[in-house]
Amino acid sequence: MTAPHPDAPVIGLDLGGTKIAAALVGADGTVLARHTVPTPAKEGAEAVLDALAVAARAVRVHGTAAIGVAAAGVIDPFTGTVTSATDTIRGWAGTALAAGLAIRTGLPVACDNDVRAAAATELDGPDDDATLLYAAVGTGVGGAVAAAGRMLHGAAGIAGHLGHLPSPEADALPCTCGATGHLEAVAAGPAITAHSVRLGGRPADRLQTVAARAAEGDPHATAAITLGARATGRALGGLANALGPHRVVVAGGVPRIGTLYWDALCAAFTAELMPPLRDLRPRPPRGGADAAVLGAAALPRTLPLHHPHTTGAPS
C-alpha cells in the first residue's frame, strides 16, 4: 500500500442509506470543510457512485491526497468491492466501490465498512494495542472488533457483523440477510418497533414512538425495548468472554432512546461475564457525530489504495 503524503488533506466520505456526508480532513484530524448530499439509494449503484464523486468534489482542494469511504454493507477493503449488502441501496452488492470512485475523481481511494471506520476512532492511535468490541445498534445491528489495536476484516470483509449472531430471543424471526433467528431481527430499531406491535401494542412508525410509550408505562413498548436490549447485552457478554476485550462500546441511535434500554443491556451483559471480566462495562462512543467521516479519512493511511486508470492489485 502507498500511503498519501502525511501532511496532505484527505477526503472522508460516510455513505449511508439516506445521505452522504463528506469532510475534508487535515493531517491533524481537523475538519476543514463539510458537505452533505442525499443518497440516491433507489437509483442504483452507479448513481450512488456519481453522488459520492459529487460530494468529494464539493470539499476537495488543491493538494488533496486521497479519499476514504466508510460505506454501508460488507466491504472488502483489499479488493475495494461490496461483497454483500441489503436492498437499502439497490444493486449495491458486487459494486466495485473503490475503483468506481477512483475513476470518477482521479484520486486514490481506500474503503471499509462504515461501522468499522467509526470504531477505529475509539482506538488511541497506532500505539494502542487494545482489544475492542464495538456494536452499532440502529436501523440494523453492525459491529467491529479490533485485536492488538488492529481492526479485523476477516474473509471478504465480513468480520464484525454482530447483527447476524444467532439469538435465542429472535427464534424463528426473519432477518434482513435472509436467515432466521439472528440478533438484528429482534434488536434493531425497526425490529423493536415491530415486536411491540406483535406483543399487542398499537402500531408505530418509528422507535422513538415506542420509547415515548414505554416512558408512559405502556407494557408492550417496555417489553419490546427490554427484550431487544437484553438480546444485545447477552450477545455482547458472550463475545466478551470469547475475545477478552479491554473496551466495549455500544453506539447507534437505539442506545440513545433512554435508560430503560441502556440499563437492560448492561444488566444482561454483566450477567454473562466470566469472573475475570466482572468489572467490564459497555460505554457510549466518544467519537461523536464526526466519527464516521474521521474514520473514513484515516483509511487511506491504513488500508490499500485503489488508483484511477489502473487494474490489478491495489498498492
TrEMBL record:
InterPro entries for this protein: ATPase_NBD, ROK, ROK_cs
High-level lineage: Bacteria, Bacillati, Actinomycetota, Actinomycetes, Kitasatosporales
Family matches, as SUPFAM superfamilies: Actin-like ATPase domain (SSF53067)
Family: Belongs to the ROK (NagC/XylR) family.
Name of the molecule in the record: ROK family protein
